[in-house]
């Protein structure tokens, strides 16, 4: 496993070949760390990329072309070694290509590319999925970055806030103990786009916010001033911190896909929010992390 660094005048980021995972966002002047450092006592990962599924499958399996395939939560890409293909002063790209092992779990040929571009205090995270197969492929992709909250050990998490660009109410779905959508339409009291983080906010696992209800989510300190903002155009996103552990981080997760519903009984192509890509076509998406 190799580590790679990209640096601007303000920030330094580090990415690992393992999962092409972002493992550090550091302020060069102050040494402040914005990204969770991966303590397995809470959660050992930092910012995995979720592919070819996001979340959990019904019965931990999916059906395609008359066969049933097992698949663990969030897919396999986060556990695989990527090849670094480009490294310039401000940008780095990694690539994962399907092989015989991946096709045992996911019977499609693909090329997954993950890129990071750092300009000033803004980090753009980029995804490209290329269909190198002769048939249509079906997939989901998402981010799972965990950000320090509290930041720099300043105060406690329940003194902090989540800020949304949507000033109206937000609705979310709750997950079952199986990690599937159980109930929908629950209301978050965001009070004009500002919500204090309650100690029990994540007691029932992640909050799944669907339907492009927001495009900008920020973490703010007790003064309600944002110190970290995630900007995206994804159709849905998740908010998560380990249930009942009082972990010192919060995940803000742009998703192009999500877990199944408890009631789901369809094929891979029927999964809600899934993506369909014809042979020779390329899917591209991105989101931006702004460290204020």
In short:
The protein has one helix and 24 strands. With 292 residues, the chain is mainly β.
Structure description:
With 292 residues, the protein is mostly beta strands. It has one domain (3-291): Beta-galactosidase, Chain A, domain 5, CATH 2.70.98.10. The protein is built from 1 helix and 24 strands. It has one helix spanning 100-105; strands spanning 3-7, 11-16, 22-27, 49-50, 61-64, 67-70, 83-87, 91-97, 110-119, 122-131, 137-139, 141-143, 146-148, 161-164, 170-175, 181-188, 194-196, 207-210, 216-220, 226-232, 236-240, 249-256, 275-277, 282-291. Strand 21 and strand 22 form a beta hairpin.
Large-scale geometry: globular
The number of helices is 1
Q: Which architecture does the CATH hierarchy give at level 2?
A: Distorted Sandwich
User: Roughly how many Å apart are the termini?
Assistant: 30 Å
Number of strands: 24
> How many separate domains?
1
Order of helices and strands: EEEEEEEEHEEEEEEEEEEEEEEEE
Q: How are strands sequenced across the largest beta sheet?
A: 7-8-9-10-24-20-19-14-17
Please give the share of residues in helix: under 10%
The poorly predicted ranges are none
Major beta sheet summary:
9 strands, antiparallel
Strand content: 35-45%
Instruction: Determine the structural class based on helices, strands and strand pairing.
Output: mainly beta
